[in-house]
Amino acid sequence: MRTSKISGSVWIALTLVYVLWGSTYLAIRVVVQTMPPFLSAGARFITAGLLLTGIVVWRFGPSALRVTRAQLGSAVLVGLLLVLGGNGLVVLGETWVPSGLAALLIAAVPVWLVVLRAATGDRPPVRTVAGVLLGLAGLAVLTSPAFGGEVRPAGVLLVLTASVLWALGSFSSSKLALPANPFAGSAYQMLAGGTGGVLTGLARGEQHALSPSEFSTASWLALGYLVVFGSLVAFTSYVWLLGSAPLSLVATYAYVNPVVAVALGSLILDEPLTWPIVTGGAIVVAGVGLIVSTERG
Q: What tens digit of pLDDT does each residue of 77-87 get?
């Protein structure tokens, strides 16, 4: 599918993912300042999943929620990979690393997608391989502050792991039999991932230090923003795009989101624009751009 044949609905959904997801890194950083990471992320997706379930029933009728056991299992698996693994580890990682750096590390998702394709027998073009190598070089620069003690290595490792799991979830969604209604599928994914987040938070003992009276107004507002715009609107748009547009085009969000995230983090949270962030981020974005341009060529 070439750009000239892409529908207006796809571009609208892409724009929502570009802008809204870019802003979620800032919102997550504000949430985890006073709220536990996995419990807040789990509550976010369970709330959004329930809201989306109601919307699906209202818009399409209860029959839209009917799925086979295989479809439900696929939705749960993808939801755990995307929501619990991909998003949950980002939330935990942002308790230690700036939101802009987290977004730039996640920008490597298209790199991992190419690696996964190659591992399953696909032979990517030389330009795509060059983009992967460039992206990995950018990641090396981005992670250098962790080796110098400027940021917590654990946070960087968590976000890198999140990017791999997100890529695996995105890759799997194109191979598995998911619910026929993409919005119902998105709801099941959010409910599964959100439940996994809450259970993980409980297993980590986050409830023992839970003190709602200490949650700041900013954290509550940021959590509400994540529920409505980050999950209900952007995540649903992303899931719809996975079934309606080429994966290589959908992956372009990965080099738009970081620009939005870094700009907002710097302007609102005064996060420093260090040379590893600027240089490594530029290299990663260039590598991802090369991959996407080649795949769409």
A: 999 999 999 99
The two three-digit tokens of residue 124, written as one number: 């990517």
Cα–Cα distance measured from residue 181 to residue 231, given in angstroms and rounded to the nearest whole number: 17
Strand residue runs (E) in the chain: none
- Burial category of 154 from C-beta neighbours within 10 Å (exposed 0-12, middle 13-18, buried 19 and up): middle
CA angle in degrees (0–180, nearest 5) for 245-246-250: 75
Calpha distance 98→103 (Å, rounded): 9
pLDDT digits (tens, 9 = 90+) for 234-284: 888 888 887 788 776 787 777 778 888 888 888 888 888 888 888 888 888
- CA-CA distance, 272 to 267, in Å (whole number)? 10
Sign of CA dihedral 194, 76, 94, 261: negative
